[in-house]
């Protein structure tokens, strides 16, 4: 009975709806990022989104409208720094991420009015997701999924063997840029769900869980999607009934799946 | 004379080091060219530049009579990289999927594979005698099997020219012999032009008809018999020692 009442709450329905879409795109993109050893880009971009959301709040605009383009630009900046200068990719992520956090702190200090709003993004709250955010999450998730679908084999080839992919005419630079931009959009969408501090877990954990047990790339994608989706649904449900923070609960359930996958791998 | 690949005055620089200096040669259809030279002599750099993996160079490269940079030469070129160096070994991928990647060069956006493509993969795998590996995971295969799978990937698009970078390094002697025989069959029966970078100079002597010997510059390019008379070919090549050609040349 309690479950039925729980499912009737509009905010729970919105959380399930938006959370499911974001969970699926995080798992799909996460698999490519993990296999390309780019997992930390999610962490770096989530820090940038802190600054970008602060910028949105500072100008009194809807934070996502500013955060999506700013984080996309930051992701391109990370690529450019690592390509055009003598700076490794992880250092480039560190630089841009630090600038993001520092800008957010400065803006928060200057405004003195939106600190509570801004800091709520640090740990996220999907139960407080607005209708606009749900619609935005669904539209952007569809765009991300469509791009993955149409560029699937190019992404696959460039992830498996980038050098060989180039020799078959795959525009690997374009593919890398595309992957980074998609990650930027996904990170911003995930911030509301699990918060800036935990976004990278949503990208990494389902992927590494799937990689422990899956045979084949498509199976990995399906398992990662299933784990991510289950974690979000169970996370929202448990956090509601046990009165726990939703984002952290989602991440810990993801981590539990990872532990189970490791155990399964060991006994088989 | 049907020239498939022509390189004119090619120069490649890494920082301050000249990796290739004024390299020029032309390869004809059906040639089996052994590309040899000392370590650091620019063999892999030459292959990568020709394949478009290194874009900063001076000089000219022509594939099938067209400038490399303005053509879709990659549709007719197969490549087997060195020692699976750039491959992501953690990637959960089946043999069938890997070989499909060789057909990407034939696709335009949106790139999807058809039933015909999948049949073609079976044909390629059968040609190399590894059809039974199709559904196996790449990471579960031996070094020799992995090398054959990557050769199948290079051959999937039925290329006119095949560039192989030290394909036999990771192979045991039996697999090596087997591998070279496959390459020879491709060259003789299917008229595929071969450029083979190798330290196995013994095998070059045995299978290739031309030798391109470089040490940043071209030191020799021509018929193997011109480099080393047929009567001496055993002493030139059969010892299978690194750099034997270099010593002979000196």
Order of helices and strands of chain A: HHHHHHHHHHHHH
Order of helices and strands of chain B: EEEHEEEHHHEHEHEEHHH
Neighbour order of strands in the largest sheet of chain B: 6-7-8-3-9-10
Q: Could you tell me how far the N terminus lies from the C terminus of chain A, measured between alpha carbons in angstroms?
A: 40 Å
How many E-type strands of chain A? 0
Which architecture of chain A per CATH? Orthogonal Bundle
Total count of helical runs of at least 4 residues of chain B: 9
Helix content of chain B: 25-40%
User: Any idea what the CATH superfamily of chain A is called?
Assistant: ABC transporter involved in vitamin B12 uptake, BtuC
* Poorly predicted regions of chain A: none
Structural class of chain A: mainly alpha
Characterize the overall form of chain A.
globular
Whole-number tally of structural domains of chain A: 1
Uncertain spans of chain B: 238-243
Q: Please name the CATH topology of the domain at 1-64 and 160-174 and 193-250 in chain B.
A: Rossmann fold
Question: Mind telling me which CATH architecture of the domain at 1-64 and 160-174 and 193-250 in chain B this is?
Answer: 3-Layer(aba) Sandwich
Short précis:
By secondary structure, chain A is mostly helical. Helices cover 85% and strands 0% of the residues of chain A. Chain B has nine helices and ten strands.
Helix/strand layout:
The complex is a heterodimer of chains A (268) and B (250).
Chain A: H1 2-8, H2 10-35, H3 40-58, H4 63-84, H5 89-111, H6 115-123, H7 131-150, H8 152-160, H9 162-167, H10 172-194, H11 199-213, H12 217-242, H13 246-267
Helix pairs in contact in A: 2-7, 2-10, 2-11, 2-12, 3-4, 3-5, 3-6, 3-10, 3-11, 4-5, 4-10, 7-10, 11-12, 11-13, 12-13
Chain B: E1 3-14, E2 17-28, E3 32-36, H1 43-50, E4 58-63, E5 66-67, E6 77-80, H2 95-101, H3 115-127, H4 143-155, E7 161-165, H5 173-189, E8 193-197, H6 201-207, E9 210-215, E10 217-223, H7 224-227, H8 233-237, H9 244-249
Parallel strand pairs in B: 3-8, 3-9, 6-7, 7-8
Antiparallel strand pairs in B: 1-2, 1-4, 4-5, 9-10
Helix pairs in contact in B: 2-4
């Amino acid at each position: 009975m309690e479950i039925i009442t729980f499912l009737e709450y509009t905010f729970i329905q919105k959380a399930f709806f938006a959370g499911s879409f974001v969970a699926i795109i995080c798992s799909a993109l996460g698999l490519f990022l993990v296999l390309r050893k780019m997992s930390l880009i999610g962490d770096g971009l989530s820090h940038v989104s802190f600054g970008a959301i602060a910028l949105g709040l500072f100008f009194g605009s809807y934070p996502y409208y500013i955060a999506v383009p700013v984080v996309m630009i930051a992701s391109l900046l990370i690529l450019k720094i690592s390509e055009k200068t003598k700076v490794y990719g992880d250092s480039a992520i560190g630089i841009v991420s630090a600038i993001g956090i520092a800008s957010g702190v400065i803006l928060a200090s200057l405004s003195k009015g939106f600190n509570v709003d801004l800091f709520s993004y640090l740990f996220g709250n999907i139960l407080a997701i607005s209708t606009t955010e749900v619609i935005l999450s669904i539209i952007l998730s569809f765009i991300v999924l469509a791009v993955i679908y149409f560029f699937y084999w190019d992404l696959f080839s460039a992830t498996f063997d980038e050098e060989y992919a180039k020799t078959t005419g795959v525009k690997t630079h374009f593919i890398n840029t595309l992957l980074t931009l998609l990650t930027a959009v996904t990170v911003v969408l995930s911030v509301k769900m699990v918060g800036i501090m935990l976004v990278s877990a949503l990208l990494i954990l389902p992927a590494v869980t799937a990689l422990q047990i899956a045979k084949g790339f498509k199976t990995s994608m399906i398992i990662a999607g299933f784990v991510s989706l289950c974690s979000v649904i169970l996370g929202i449900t448990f956090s509601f009934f046990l009165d726990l923070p939703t984002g952290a609960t989602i991440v810990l359930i993801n981590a539990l799946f990872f532990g189970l996958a490791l155990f399964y791998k060991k006994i088989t | 004379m049907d020239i498939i690949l022509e390189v004119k005055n090619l120069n490649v620089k890494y920082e301050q080091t000249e990796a290739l200096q004024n390299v020029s040669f032309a390869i004809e259809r059906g040639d089996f060219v052994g590309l040899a030279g000392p370590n650091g002599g620019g063999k892999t750099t030459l292959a990568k530049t020709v394949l478009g993996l290194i874009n900063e160079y001076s000089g000219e490269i022509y594939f099938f009579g067209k400038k490399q940079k303005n053509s879709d030469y990659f549709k007719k070129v197969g490549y087997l990289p060195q020692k699976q160096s750039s491959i992501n070994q953690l990637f959960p991928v089946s043999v069938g999927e890997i070989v499909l990647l060789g057909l990407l060069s034939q696709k335009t956006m949106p790139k999807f594979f058809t039933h015909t493509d999948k049949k073609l993969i079976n044909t390629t795998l059968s040609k190399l005698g590894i059809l039974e590996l199709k559904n196996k995971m790449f990471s579960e295969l031996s070094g020799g099997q992995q090398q054959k799978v990557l050769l199948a990937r290079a051959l999937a698009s039925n290329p006119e020219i095949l560039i192989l970078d030290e394909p036999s390094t990771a192979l045991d002697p039996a697999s090596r012999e087997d591998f070279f025989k496959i390459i020879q069959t491709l060259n003789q029966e299917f008229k595929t032009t071969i450029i083979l970078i190798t330290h196995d100079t013994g095998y070059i002597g045995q299978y290739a008809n031309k030798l391109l010997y470089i040490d940043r510059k071209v030191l020799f390019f021509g018929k193997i018999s011109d480099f080393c008379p047929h009567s001496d070919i055993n002493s030139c090549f059969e010892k299978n020692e690194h750099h034997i050609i270099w010593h002979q040349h000196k």
